[in-house]
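Q: I have 169 residues here and want to know how they pack in 3D. Can you give me a structure?
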Amino acid sequence: MTHMIRLIQITLMCLMVMSGTQTHAQVMLPGTNASESAVTLPDPLTTEAANALISRLSDSEVRSLLLDQLNTQATEEAEAASAGESEFVYHATTGAWSSVTTPIERLPLLYTGQATAFSNFFDRIGGGLGLVKLLGYMIVVFGIAAAAELVFRRLTRGGASCRPQMPTT
């Protein structure tokens, strides 16, 4: 019982660590204002357009633009990571439950599927004559296997008679 409680504690601790909050390495400095971050990228972003934009911006505007792009990229990566965590939680809870309930729901299909399987079997092997041929092949294979076993036993039993006998008193 204590092992089960310990396992639950470890699982909860792992979930808490995985769902930790994201922190940003870059923050806006107190001296910057919102008008500097109003720079937008040109719609067809080519190398020439990017060079022209950077050449007409000041250093603080370039930094602001770079920070915005890095924050956007970090946010997208964080959303992708949280989507992976939510998928894990789904498969650990609802997905696990559906893997149990789905076979139970499909149990009635088993009986209708059996009739279809038998009809396909008889159609493929040719009904009664094909079934007799299949049983004949099985008997031949089992007969060869039994003969091989008998030969093996005879060959290995011969070595047992070569052992020295204990003298009887």
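Q: Anything worth noting?
A: The chain is about 75% helix and 0% strand. The helical segments are 2-18, 47-56, 59-92, 94-105, 107-125, 127-160.
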